[in-house]
Design a protein that fits this description.
The structure holds two protein chains of two kinds. Chain A is about 20% helix and about 10% strand. By secondary structure, chain A is an alpha+beta fold. Chain B folds into two domains: about 60 residues, no CATH class; about 220 residues, Alpha-Beta Plaits, CATH 3.30.70. Chain B is an alpha+beta fold. In chain B, about 40% of the residues are buried. Classes of the chains: A alpha+beta, B alpha+beta.
Chain lengths: ~190, ~300
């Protein structure tokens, strides 16, 4: 799977931090889309890449500073300006803030709209609450990268592999060299 | 079915056989058995196996490492299709590089099966304004979108109709292939293809031992001789084994989708049913199996 490896290398900086919890979850037969059961298996190699997407170790894990025993959680929605050095927030403007996604008590967990807390690696469930169309497409393998077998086990990358949750717009890349024009070849 | 009367091939065999016997037993790059090999589609399974053994030996000797050449056949109830999301493609050309490496394309002279076109948004899909040689510091550029083009694996392929010797044909799973040992290099197929998807080897393809991909298919990525035409095969050596093509797996934005058109649960069918889909030059009735969509 050398091309997957190549992909890993391209995005290695995004996944500089190792995930703090145990084995990656396996989404198997968990999703249904348009009446179809879609078997989705997370490749452990792929999962090592992304979560969490931060490259700044000063802001992760959250609970190192946001420990409820030492820092009383303030759930009041407010403008934080630049909440942390080096953390750029550009996601839905002022319409959302930290605690719309992070759990109030444990910032390293995510909180769904129904109050359920989930691990960071399960972020697609959270993202799908707002981005339903993309979530459906991702489940079907049409949004995002999918590797493996067209007729069997597939490996896929969760949202945060390609999108920084705090600044989700996919950035640009340097293009590889253009083809040689014919007149130069001859 | 072979005809009862002597045909061109048999005549050439006799003439070339005399010439070959008179010389040291070789004819250019071809060995005896290679020169007398019949067209691929008329070979028995035992003959194909012999051909594969010969090719494996030749390529292993040439590159100094073990090469395997398969001839995996199409599966039943499979018709391959491809979909590309032009709203996601950023024109980074990672697919071009992956294709070159996977399919043993010539590095020198340069030959690439995928051509990524930079299209001006003001003109839409108008090939008059397509720019394949764009080279900014970063892509995507404002005001442009990107349209990668390779073989469209048409259901009604003009290239196949134009070949005077039957060296290119459509397999049962929809892949349009070339028998590099039967191609005479007339380039009629290149003139017939409206997508510029076929490429001619003007010189012996230059591939080093470090660069060569040793997992080969007879109709796919085995190194080609000089003077023949080649093109995208949907990575036949991978897809007939159930894997995704190399370009699908390398795409950093996941714009490329591949699957079985006959499987209602495939990604391809999802795209065709849920997205806005179009094909290139639909007015030519080539009926491509390569679909472009907006995700």
């Amino acid at each position: 799977m050398k091309h997957s490896l190549a992909f890993c290398l391209v995005f290695a900086p995004l996944g500089a931090c190792a995930h703090h919890s145990g084995d990656p979850p396996v989404y198997e037969g968990a999703f249904a889309s348009h009446g179809r059961n879609i078997e989705v298996v997370v490749d452990p190699q792929a999962v090592l890449l992304p979560p969490p997407p931060f490259t700044n170790k000063d802001i992760f894990p959250c609970v190192e500073c946001h420990d409820p025993d030492f820092l009383e959680p303030d759930a009041k929605r407010r403008d934080l300006g630049e909440p942390h050095d080096g953390m750029f927030f550009n996601h839905a403007g002022e319409r959302i803030w930290c605690l719309d996604c992070h759990d109030t008590e444990d910032g390293d967990l995510l909180r769904l709209s129904d109050g359920t807390t989930i691990d960071l690696i399960e972020a697609p469930r959270l993202c799908g609450q707002c981005h339903g169309m993309h979530y459906r497409d991702w489940q079907a393998g049409v949004h995002g990268l999918r590797t493996g077998h067209w007729d069997g086990a597939k490996e896929f990358l969760p949202c945060s592999s390609c999108h920084n949750a705090h600044d989700p717009l996919f950035g640009g890349l340097e293009p590889l060299a253009p083809p040689t024009p014919p007149e130069v070849t001859r | 079915m072979k005809s009862a009367t002597p045909n061109r091939r048999e005549f050439l065999c006799v003439v070339a056989g005399c010439a070959a016997a008179a010389s040291s037993g070789s004819c250019g790059d071809l060995t005896h058995s290679g020169f007398f090999q019949d067209r691929f589609r008329e070979l028995s399974r035992a003959e194909i196996d012999q051909v594969l053994i010969r090719l494996e030996r030749e390529h292993s000797e040439r590159f100094g490492k073990e090469c395997t050449v398969t001839a995996t056949e199409p599966r039943e109830d499979v018709e391959f299709g491809y979909a590309l999301d032009i709203s996601r493609c950023i024109g980074c050309r990672r697919c071009v590089q992956a294709c070159v490496e996977e399919n043993n394309q010539s590095r020198s002279p340069e030959l690439q099966w995928i051509r990524v076109l930079e299209m001006d948004e003001r003109h839409g899909i108008d090939f008059h304004y397509a720019e394949p040689y764009y080279d900014p510091e970063q892509v995507p550029q404002d005001g442009y979108f990107y349209l990668p083009v390779a073989c469209q694996h048409c259901k009604n392929p003009p290239c196949v109709k134009s070949c005077p010797v039957g060296a290119t044909w459509q397999e049962d799973d929809g892949i349009v292939v070339v028998d590099y040992d039967w191609c005479i290099g007339c380039r009629c197929c290149m003139a017939a293809c409206p997508y510029g998807a076929r490429h001619f080897n003007w010189k012996t393809p230059g591939i080093s031992a470090e660069e060569v991909n040793p997992d080969m298919h007879y109709l796919g990525n085995r190194p080609r001789p000089v003077g023949v035409v080649e093109k995208c095969t949907f990575c036949i050596q991978r897809t007939r084994e159930g894997r995704y093509p190399a370009c699908v797996e390398i795409c950093p934005v996941g714009a490329r989708k591949f699957g079985n058109l006959l499987d209602p649960d495939s990604e391809l069918r999802y795209v065709l049913e849920q997205k806005r889909v179009f094909v290139l030059k639909a007015e030519l009735n080539t009926q491509p199996r390569f679909y472009y969509f907006m995700g």
